[in-house]
Write a structure and sequence with these properties.
Number of strands: 0
Helix content: over 70%
Largest sheet: none
Structural class: mainly alpha
Length: about 70
């Protein structure tokens, strides 16, 4: 029975390794998604900032003309 016990232990160890690898992979994917969302939020905020600045510059130019 020693061979069967060894095979069971080996199969169990392989199963644990596969499970751990799967969990690590899903965590990495989740981290990358979070990173991409944050980057998107930054780009959106920068675009909004630039838009407000341009609008304010136009208003200032119009004030100076009158």
């Amino acid at each position: 029975m020693g061979f069967m016990d060894d095979a069971k232990e080996t199969a169990k160890a392989v199963g644990e390794k596969v499970k751990d690898t799967w969990e690590d992979t899903t965590d990495r994917i989740g981290d990358k998604v979070d990173e991409m969302k944050a980057e998107s939020d930054v780009k959106k905020a920068e675009a909004e900032r630039d838009s407000v600045k341009a609008r304010n510059d136009i208003k200032e130019d119009l004030r100076d003309e009158t």
